[in-house]
Amino acid sequence: MLDRERDEIARMNATQLAYMGDAVYEVKIRQMLISKSEQVDNLHTKAIEYVSAVSQARAAKMLENTLEDVEKEVFRRARNKKQKTKPKNVDHVTYKYATALEALLGYLYLTGDTLRMDEVIANIIGMLDGHSDSIDEKEMENE
Prior knowledge:
Structural class: mainly alpha
Number of helices: 8
Strand content: under 5%
């Protein structure tokens, strides 16, 4: 992919990036749960542990300082984007961090950087499962 195309994707509407990232993340989580042979009856409940806004925001805060420059910019733009709607069931800040994480994943997917996207998702899963060596949970406590 040309740098110009990457720049154009990085400047896309943050809501569009988050929309794509939400879909990609949901599919990756479903794949992971199926590969772990989770009981079908438990799949939705387990998926929520990873895809809820609260879980995404928690992971986003821990990941934020590990991002590359262009990733930080995409993340920052999405997090700081003015919201036109009020989030349901979560506070404003939680929603913004979850949206930022989704936008980052959307950016990585659209640029074709699936290796990096898979690395970020693996870190998210590790953090949410409580066994990530790459991110220190104390970083989140300092937020």
